[in-house]
Design goal:
9 helices; 2 domains; alpha/beta
């Protein structure tokens, strides 16, 4: 049975994907680089190291990249963070897994400065043993670096870990790190984009309601990355 549950945060525990997309749109507009929400939204789940070059041709290592990233973070925290809500059943699922004696870890493409704020929205700040963010890896999702960092911190083997995420980038990162993953629809992705997951649920509440029949209780073979 699994000993470690690794969670994405945005879209999985907090209904924040649209807010992140809008913060990027706002920041780029303020820097004179207009990009549509529809262009940015499908890339949420990646880190800025991948998103910013894709939508604006800007490297995050450049001076402009640093300015846009810092502005995006400030806009997100000031304009959008106060409006966010947890996904349905987020805290209840985490509490159930804790009571099942699973170690809870977070693996997110968000910056570390955002992690505690987001976990606070989910009411989950004290439920996680550790968090890994884009600050802990050279490459963000769908590369496996952030997930691998979480596995390393757990001290457990890959076959003892399972992840919960909401984007195809979470799924690719988990599979490339060699661990199982289940997906949630609450991040806004269609089932076809999440089809490599072992199972798909509406949200944390749906997973909790079906927990005894889920891969958490009935481990299944990994699907290919």
């Amino acid at each position: 049975m699994y000993r470690v549950a690794i969670f994405d945060i945005d879209g999985t525990l907090v209904d924040s994907n649209d807010a992140h997309a809008q913060a990027w749109v706002d920041a780029l507009a303020e820097r004179g680089r207009p990009v549509s929400f529809e262009t940015v939204r499908p890339l949420i789940g990646m880190g800025g190291d991948k998103l910013l070059p894709r939508v604006a041709g800007i490297s995050t290592d450049s001076e402009e990249g640093h300015l846009v990233s810092e502005l995006r973070l400030r806009i997100f925290r000031d304009r959008y963070l106060p409006t966010l809500q947890p996904t349905r059943g987020a805290r209840q699922l985490l509490e159930h897994l804790r009571d099942e004696r699973l170690m809870l870890l977070a693996a997110t493409s968000a910056q570390q400065q955002e992690v505690n704020d987001l976990l606070g929205v989910a009411g989950a700040t004290r439920l996680f043993e550790s968090t890994t963010s884009s600050d802990d890896a050279e490459r963000s999702k769908p590369d496996p670096d952030i997930v691998q960092a979480a596995i390393d911190r757990s001290g457990c083997s890959r076959d003892q870990a399972i992840m919960v995420g909401d984007t195809p980038y979470d799924i690719d990162a988990a599979l490339r790190a060699g661990i199982a993953i289940v997906a949630l629809r609450c991040g806004g992705w269609p089932d076809g984009a999440l089809s490599k997951a072992l199972a798909i649920y509406d949200d944390p509440a749906d997973l909790l309601n079906n927990y005894d029949l889920s891969p958490f209780k009935r481990p299944l073979p990994l699907r290919s990355a």
